[in-house]
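Figure 2 data, in text form.
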Amino acid sequence: MNFKKSEQLLDRALKSIPLASQTFSKSLTQYPRGVSPFFIEKGKGVKVWDVDGNEYIDFVNSLLSVTLGYCDIDVDKAVQEQMRNGVIFSLPHKLEMKVAEKLIEVIPCAEKVRFGKNGTDATSAAIRVSRAYTGKERVAVCGYHGWQDWYIGSTTRDLGVPNCVKGLTHKFEYNNIESLEEIFQEQELACVIMEPMNVEYPKDNFLEKVKELAHKNNALLIFDEMITGFRYSTGGAQELFGVTPDLATFGKGMANGYPLSVVVGSNEIMQKMEDIFFSGTFGGETLSLAAANSVIDKYKKHDITGHFKEIGGYLIKQLQKLIDSEGLSDIFSIAGHPSWNFLQIKQQDSYTTFEIKTLFLQEVFKRGILTLGSHNISFSHTKEDIDKLIAVYAEVLPMIKKHIDNKILLENIQGEILEPLFKVR
């Protein structure tokens, strides 16, 4: 594939935009330079076309924010109709109330709703309202929760975060209740915020134990369902696993790519929203609300999460069959939920995970597959798309094993090798 225009635009963008992107995960920190597309021109359904005209089946789906597919006809129609009446006004629009009421219908913990524009808005608001409600300051975190100081200070990407803020956040391990118990033994926590699932399924009633432990210590439980909401089930992982948190945050696929996020929770806790300061000019922007209104209606009409389960389950089964038949399990494994699953790469004696991943990305991009190692399923994906993915993997994964065995992997990398950003899962 030719990436000449992408490379030219990247050089141009780097002069005006740090990393040439607004999002780390869409930048050259994730896409190896020299072998990757850097700018997409358009998308339709499961396919995207880069600025050089290369076509891909997309398994990134804008970092899981596209659940129905690009340019969904019903969502586009709803947005276009609203656009004719206006985007934002001097007073609230009734769509705010309509979408809030629909979210209350489908999300188990939702009794009241407040809107934001991105995940960090919603998780940060949930933390603030938890601190206000409990009168405590410290929080325990598990997973990825956005770029604000209270969370990112707990990661290696903590430059610019005051030490006094870092000290208020404590990390615990998924499926390790003892790691959370240790924090509670030493600290008074306002809340526990966690992704209810990412790579691993909860084991030994882990989510129930977290909720019990939080409530025993007068702390709130927050589920960060930015990804799991409208993907694991319409009402999120809390609906799938039958564990209802005090607060939850949703976003991404809720509006099929339009910028919208929400904090939802019980009446009593959410009333504190009237006392804290969480207010944004664009929280009631109507095009995203019209999109979400259409998405929720479409989820009610079609078994969209059932489609995720069927198509993603087929992918997992076929990929595992390939790994087993080609003897690749020393290098590759698959994990996660059918709607959001991961091809995991294991460190080798001679090569790092990032060296192997660089070659992997180089070869799958070359064959018309856009992925960063995860498979983010949309309603537009078909079994034919999965078969094409597996056919590409059937060429690429054994090739990588061969290069590792023959110690010629680096010699076959044609671009710059990826470097680690930070690990949260």
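Caption note: Residues 67 and 386 are 16 Å apart (CA to CA).
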